[in-house]
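TA notes, week 10

Several of you asked for a full example with nothing omitted. So below is the full record: structure tokens for the whole chain, then the designed sequence directly under it. When grading your own attempts, check the secondary structure regions first.
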């Protein structure tokens, strides 16, 4: 990936203003820090290296060594490093991992909390801070970027039909019923019904919007509750307006070919809606015999909106956040250098350069960046098709983002175990595809969860 001198200069000037421009953070003594990142792709590593090089040019007393670590290996690697006394100085990893590391006492929470305060708590989306906050009120790590899930829908169809946006349970199912016309090969909604992660992602947001959870704050299993049963019943009803057969994310093809009104998806769909080359794989007849294939609709992105926050008894957003964490190394000079590097990474141009590595997949956790013209000008020219107002609306889902795995600031490790065993997706399949009753399904899932616990 190539950068112009002008681009690097912009990063330099922005970071200089944000970080203060002093030569180092170590009283003149050279310091080297290790930065473990989960952005392991070569192009992304090259981009981060440009950012690190610019930072080092500004701070000749500090050197930054980038070390790629696969997300699936991060927990193992951190635990091994802790045992050996060789923890890195800075890590970038999924928030459930950083929260787990913090709960094990491996992170400098005081430094993370101080940095968040310096940046300004009110500048962050509230939901991303909640996912990082401990019971004591301190932060395990600093949220950095993430993707948002919600319901993407044909706003033009809704407007013509006089329907409200699909933001509440009542409005979602009303629209699903209205647009369900199987005789015309048109379907009301897409929710996952195969036994896999997509189904759990769809279900989790709806369940949390009804106040349902797997555990209470004491770590006790509360899955078989009235709110969870209501959520499962509602989900099973929504699934009746799906395309035929057990479905997964692949059925987004129906939407891209104009045969579906709504579908659950993350912001990773943004390029498919905006760019013909990205949408090509969904415009064929190869994946579904019911679809004949179609040409790219350049107006689809304009006619599409997203409902990132769903509600019944409470609002709920859903997504994945990646955070920056400062391990406890016991070396004050290294910690000071890592803190300065973090402040630099949050400087607008450096931050936007980082986010542009994956437009739609990496969204800002800082509210004002979502509508920043520089953020809008992504290299693939995706965001220009949405505009600042729609971008801000989409990313606003980060305000109410929730997860089964963190309850009132406490990470419940068993939630990850339940997720890994795909108990909820299996439950959804049994109820929606095999005809198991809601009561029997809830009892089965609870029993399976108890086996793990």
């Amino acid at each position: 990936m190539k950068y112009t001198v002008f681009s690097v200069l912009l990063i330099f000037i922005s970071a200089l203003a944000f970080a203060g421009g002093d030569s180092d953070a170590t009283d003149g003594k050279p310091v080297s820090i290790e930065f473990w990142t989960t952005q392991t792709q070569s192009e992304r590593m090259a981009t981060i290296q440009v950012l690190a090089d610019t930072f080092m040019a500004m701070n000749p007393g500090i050197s930054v060594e980038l070390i790629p670590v696969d997300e699936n290996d991060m927990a193992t690697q951190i635990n091994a490093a802790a045992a050996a006394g060789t923890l890195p100085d800075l890590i970038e990893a999924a928030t459930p991992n950083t929260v787990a590391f913090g709960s094990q006492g491996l992170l400098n929470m005081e430094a993370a909390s101080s940095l968040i305060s310096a940046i300004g708590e009110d500048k962050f989306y509230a939901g991303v801070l909640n996912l990082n906050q401990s019971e004591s009120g301190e932060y395990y790590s600093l949220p950095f970027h993430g993707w948002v899930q919600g319901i993407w829908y044909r706003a033009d169809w809704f407007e013509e039909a006089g329907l409200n946006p699909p933001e509440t349970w009542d409005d979602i199912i009303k629209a699903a019923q209205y647009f369900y016309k199987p005789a015309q090969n048109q379907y009301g909604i897409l929710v996952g019904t195969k036994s896999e992660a997509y189904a759990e992602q769809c279900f989790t947001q709806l369940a949390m919007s009804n106040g349902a959870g797997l555990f209470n704050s004491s770590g006790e299993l509360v899955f078989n509750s009235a709110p969870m049963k209501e959520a499962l019943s509602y989900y099973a009803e929504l699934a009746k307006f799906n395309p035929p057969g057990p479905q997964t994310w692949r059925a987004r093809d129906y939407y891209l070919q104009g045969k579906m009104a709504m579908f659950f998806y993350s912001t990773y769909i943004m390029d498919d809606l905006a760019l013909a080359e990205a949408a090509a794989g969904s415009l064929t007849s190869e994946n579904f015999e019911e679809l004949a294939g179609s040409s790219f609709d350049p107006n689809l992105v304009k006619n599409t909106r997203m409902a990132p926050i769903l509600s019944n008894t409470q609002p709920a957003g859903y997504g994945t956040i990646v955070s920056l964490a400062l391990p406890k190394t016991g070396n004050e000079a290294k910690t000071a250098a890592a803190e300065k590097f973090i402040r630099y990474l949050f400087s607008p141009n450096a931050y936007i350069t980082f986010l542009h590595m994956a437009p739609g997949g990496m969204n800002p956790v800082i509210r004002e960046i979502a509508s920043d013209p520089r953020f809008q000008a992504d290299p693939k020219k995706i965001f220009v098709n949405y505009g600042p107002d729609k971008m801000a609306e989409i990313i606003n889902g980060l305000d109410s983002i929730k997860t089964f795995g963190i309850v009132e600031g406490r990470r419940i490790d068993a939630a990850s175990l339940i997720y890994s065993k795909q108990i909820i997706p299996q439950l959804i399949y049994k109820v929606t595809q095999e005809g198991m009753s809601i009561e029997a399904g809830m009892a089965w899932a609870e029993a399976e969860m108890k086996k793990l616990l």
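Residues 218 and 410 are 9 Å apart (CA to CA). Use that as a sanity check on your answer.
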